[in-house]
Amino acid sequence: MNKNPLIPKPHKIIGINRETDLESTFRIEMDTAPVMGQFYMVSIPRIGEMPISISGIGQGWIDMTIRNVGKVSQAVHFLDMESTLFLRGPYGNGFCLEEFKGQHLVIAAGGSGIAPVRPIVEYYYNNQHEIDKLDLLFGFKTPDAIMFGKDIKRWKERFKTILTVDDACGIWDGECVGLITGYVKDIKLSEYDRMDVIIIGPPVMIKFTAAEFIKRGVSEERIIVSMERRMSCGLGKCGHCKIGEHYICLDGPVFRYNDAFKMID
Amino acid sequence: MGWKFTNTAFNDLFAGLTEDYIILAPKRFVNRGRFSDTDLIRYDEVKKSDDIIWKEKSTFSPKEAVFPVTQTLFYFTEEAFREPQPEEKQYLVFLRPCDINGIRRPDTINLKNGPEPDSYYANLRKRVRFVMIECTESFDNCFCVSMKSNITSDYDMAVRLTDDKVLLEIKNDDFLRYIRSDIPKIEFRPEFVLENKIKVNVPEVDEMPAGVYEHEMWNEYKSRCIACGRCNTTCVTCTCHTTNDIFYDDNSLAGERRRTWASCHVDGFTDMAGGISFRKDNGSRMRFKVLHKIYDYRKRFGEHMCVGCGRCDDNCPEYISYSGCINTLNKVIRETVS
Ligand code: SF4
Ligand code: SF4
Ligand code: FES
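The joint structure predicted for all components is written out below.
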């Protein structure tokens, strides 16, 4: 086989699930398991490449939830079952689940930031004994933007789950109005080193949500974020993802917040 | 070991070298320069010594020799990928000490950053040999001494040009066979520039004070910089690039994936699908570039990225002085720290 890391490999689409008007989850045949939090460069020849994080991992497959907002993603949304997607990766570091053993874990995700945390929640849904407690805090802009609705309903049975929608109320069972940041106070915190907080979402959401947790006494080292940046190579060469001395594709996308907050674009 | 050539004999040497090497050197393109009535000097193939511009600084750096502006990664046919035929050609590049030190930066990024070396870069790079052009007097805007890039020993041959003779040092014995037996041997060691008119105080801080990022010193560039990217394209150390796909007009099923130089000053560099982008104003792009050149890169790789060739200052259409900016930054840091 070809050893050139820039040449992608064909993978078959074995499932397509529409999440929202814009987002669909593609289940893709994959014989090696990536680490949760990593990403692939996904491409369609003659159209282009884009970085996509992993939104599900199973025996012989991975899920990728793709938002129809660019040239390549648009083309992907035209694909049917059994079509081929071209992938190279996985790239970047991921979440180290080992570190969460016995911990109280809080996951706060905004918008499509829920995609990369879905495999983590799913993992603890099936292995609840590995953590002390898991709290979920999900925020979406509108009711239409809610993704993984069925999963969330299921997770809710096992974990405290707060779902917020920026500007609507009452459409979805148990949902709250407003930004995620307003609901951080509803999470009961554990002692300093017994808890970890994962925050994923748009840059402003990360910043303000982290600030709320810090205000409540959670230290920066206990907060873990995943950063999204423009990526072209995924291999530390093209420079698009660089912030300060860090390359998000190599050193990230997952960072401890005590490192991440110092990184200024 | 050194040799002394007449100009004619030196041109003859080229005849021999061109049998095995493509020689790349600074060449003049009349009236093609940045400003009206100016010439463009850039790297191109030369066949004889007389074609080389010895006494002026080149507009563009020799970076193109190791890192082409556009490069095909592979071709698509229906469902298969085909890499370009591997090239075998050997290159001999005439360049100055700052540029030899400069090319170490693209080397580092492409060969050492990340899990594995870039195979395209590695494949071309190993076929490139350097002839150092002795540089004893600096040009406008040069500040190689401040950047400690005025001296190098990383070359295969070195050459000094005077009005009536050419002196050549050979460090790589592979080149001995091109020297005719009638060429007189002499002692020759190249000298280096030891002082520039422009001196830059590079801040040597371990942690950049947070205030620097938001400092008003960057505001000046918000409107002055027009985001043309010339400072990046002429820089010997800039390595950013973007990968794009194209398909052919006559057969839309066939096409290629290629990468092309990119510039952190130019709009779109950080754009993500969906509308999020970073560093929207040109002031923060200037800050990003300057800090990369003289701070971020050193934190990661242990030496500064910038080698002080001054080409960014030579070529900025808005006469923005990058070296001046570093000096201002140094002052700002000193004020912030104290
Ligand atoms: S930043 Fe300017 S002076 Fe430094 S290496 Fe690049 S072009 Fe030369
Ligand atoms: S600093 Fe000058 S050369 Fe560089 S992008 Fe701005 S205007 Fe162009
Ligand atoms: S994506 Fe190219 S350097 Fe990170």
